[in-house]
Design a protein that fits this description.
This protein has about 325 residues and is an alpha+beta fold. The protein is built from seven helices and nine strands.
């Protein structure tokens, strides 16, 4: 159980990028934390494997002893003391198996939770943006059409290490009046650790981008500003507020075409961008066209350069 405690402690100490760290330092620190968590998970997996092997051995012994007991009971006339000894041995092993069963269950549950936490750390963003990679689109679309699962959620992301916690919610076959005609895409404000010191209602512009994967940069871009009177943008009292956004984000007839440029290899990419810096609307296409593989500080530098260039051109 000590490996589980150690992993949980590591997760709780995960750095969540402080403001004094540069983007590169943050990335290195996060990578080191992820490696440490992976090592601890491997140790925990080994522990669980050893425990499982021990249980299998005990169960095998139990079966063997029970079989021997049965043979002795029905095939030969053994002294009563031998029968009693075999019965006690079986009872002891059964009692031991019953005692360790809860521990095995706890270890398995904690191991599953640790794997989920590692995945969360791996995909978490702390700069107010998220590129959501959606795989098996055809299966998810079929689930939405049949209403087995009408919507899916993105991983959570944050405005900063001490900021707002957010996610997106996608209805692949539409929601409400947009059902069967459009994909519906919504923004969800989540309950975060630092909400007590953040400003509410949440009033920052949200932009959604469906990436064109053909290289032609014909991305689908749409934005909305929060209705500060809506409960969706007040301080969350439960895990998630009611989703709010753009019901008619993209026509289904276009996304369902076999040769469309927005789903390739059964995968689509959606970017969620929360504008905390009041980026001018005219700059959005430029911001979206930047290579998302560039470090964040490089992207910010390019945006600043482009904005200065356009400002100078407008003034001349």
């Amino acid at each position: 159980m000590s490996c589980i405690v150690k992993i949980t402690s590591n997760i709780q100490r995960h750095p969540e990028l402080t403001s004094k760290m540069t983007a590169d330092q943050s990335m290195e620190h996060e990578l080191a934390q992820r490696n440490n968590l992976s090592e601890e998970m491997e140790k925990c997996t080994e522990t669980l494997s050893i425990l499982d092997q021990g249980v299998k051995t005990l169960m095998s012994d139990n079966v063997r002893i029970a079989s021997k007991f049965q043979r002795n009971e029905y095939s030969i006339q053994s002294p009563p003391s031998d029968h009693q000894q075999l019965k006690l041995s079986i009872d002891e092993k059964e009692s031991f198996l019953a005692k360790i069963a809860p521990d095995r269950q706890i270890i398995q549950e904690n191991l599953t939770k640790t794997k989920e936490d590692i995945l969360t750390i791996e995909y978490t963003s702390y700069d107010g943006t998220l590129i959501w990679r959606i795989t098996n689109v055809s299966d998810k679309m079929a689930d939405a059409q049949s209403e087995r699962q009408t919507s899916i959620y993105s991983p959570p992301f944050y405005s900063s290490s001490t900021g707002y916690k957010m996610r997106a919610r996608l209805y692949l076959h539409g929601d409400g009046n947009a059902r069967r005609t459009h994909m519906s895409l919504f923004f969800v404000l989540m309950k975060g650790k630092y909400d007590a010191v953040l400003k509410f209602p949440f009033n920052y512009k949200v932009t959604f981008v469906l990436y064109d994967q053909s290289g032609q940069n014909r991305h689908v871009i749409d934005s909305f500003r929060p209705d500060t009177k809506s409960n969706s943008f007040q301080r969350p009292q439960s895990d998630m507020n009611i989703a709010s956004g753009i019901p008619k984000f993209f026509p289904l007839r276009m996304i369902q075409q076999d040769d469309n440029n927005y789903v390739k290899d059964d995968t689509m990419f959606i970017k969620i961008l929360v504008d905390f810096g009041d980026v001018p609307k005219m700059m959005l296409p430029f911001v979206i066209s930047l290579n998302p593989g560039l470090p964040l500080h490089d992207q910010q530098h390019l945006i600043k350069q482009e904005l200065e260039k356009r400002t100078q051109a407008a003034a001349s």
